[in-house]
Amino acid sequence: MAIQSDSYIPKPVILKVPGQVRQWHARDRGVFLSQHARKALRLCAANCRLELGELTKDDDGMPLPSNGLHWSLTHKPGYVAAVVSPDPVGIDLEEIRDIHEGLYRRVAGAKEWRLASGTGDRKWLFFRFWTAKEAVMKAAGTGIKDLSRIEIRQIPDQNHITLALRGITWKVQQYYFDRHIAAITAGDADVEWSIF
Question: For the residues of the chain, what is the DSSP string, one character each?
Answer without folding.
Answer: ----GGG-----EEEEPPGGGGGS-HHHHHHHHHHHHHHHHHHHHHHTT-------B-TTSPBPPBTTBEEEEEE-SSEEEEEEESS---EEEEE-----THHHHHH--HHHHHHTTTSS-HHHHHHHHHHHHHHHHHHHT--GGGGGG-EEEEEEETTEEEEEETTEEEEEEEEEETTEEEEEE-TTSPP--EE-
